[in-house]
Amino acid sequence: MAAYPQDPGAPDPAYLTFWEERHLCTLTTLRPDGTPHVAPVGVTYDPEARLARVITNKSSKKVGNVLAAGPDGARVAACQVDGGRWATLEGLAYVRTEPERVGEAERRYAVRYGRTPSPNPHRVVIEIELTRAMGRG
Predict the structure, then answer these.
(1) 35 contacts: CB under 8 Å, gap ≥ 6
(2) I need a labelling partner for 85 at 20 to 30 A (CA). Which of 17, 22, 66, 134 fits?
(3) What residue numbers bound the domain in which 80 lies?
(4) Strands, E, within 51-122: which ranges?
């Protein structure tokens, strides 16, 4: 994976493989005052749907920041780093509460991170409609 933009819907094989490996990620959202809020998260990447997904509690600050951006979505970035390798996915985030969307996000999390998330009746998924992907490896 060289340093260059990727098509988030058609990444090169090395970029996709990096997103399939188990890595802790960060999600950057913007607070209502415009300052960044960075939180450690697990992220799954679905290039066919051009989506990244983050499962979280509906009362989390990141959810509040996404909701505060309004119905047109919140600009966010998800990033992972491993030594000199890094990858970033950018796009518009939306909070989804539908059980089928949350369930799909949980399923993908279990595949990537090797464990099923514990039950949480307050879980939601932040879906990121991807507009840009970049990285270096």
Answers:
(1) none
(2) 66
(3) 4-136
(4) 51-57, 74-82, 85-96
Task: Count the helices and strands in the chain (H runs, E runs).
Answer: 3, 8
Which two three-digit tokens encode residue 18?
A: 């990096």
Q: What is the CATH number of the domain that holds 13?
A: 2.30.110.10
User: pLDDT tens for residues 29-59?
Assistant: 999 999 999 999 999 999 999 999 999 999 9
DSSP structural state of residue 84:
T
- pLDDT at 3 > cutoff 80: no
User: What is the number of structural domains in the chain?
Assistant: 1
Phi/psi of residue 106, nearest 5 degrees:
-65, -40
Nearest Cα residue to 29 out of 98, 97, 82, 91: 91
| C-beta separation of 116 from 55 below 8 A | no
Q: Indicate yes or no: pTM above 0.90.
A: yes
Strands 51-57 and 44-46, sheet pairing: antiparallel
- 125 in Cβ contact with 55 (< 8 Å): yes
Question: Rounded distance, CA 134 to CA 77, Å?
Answer: 11
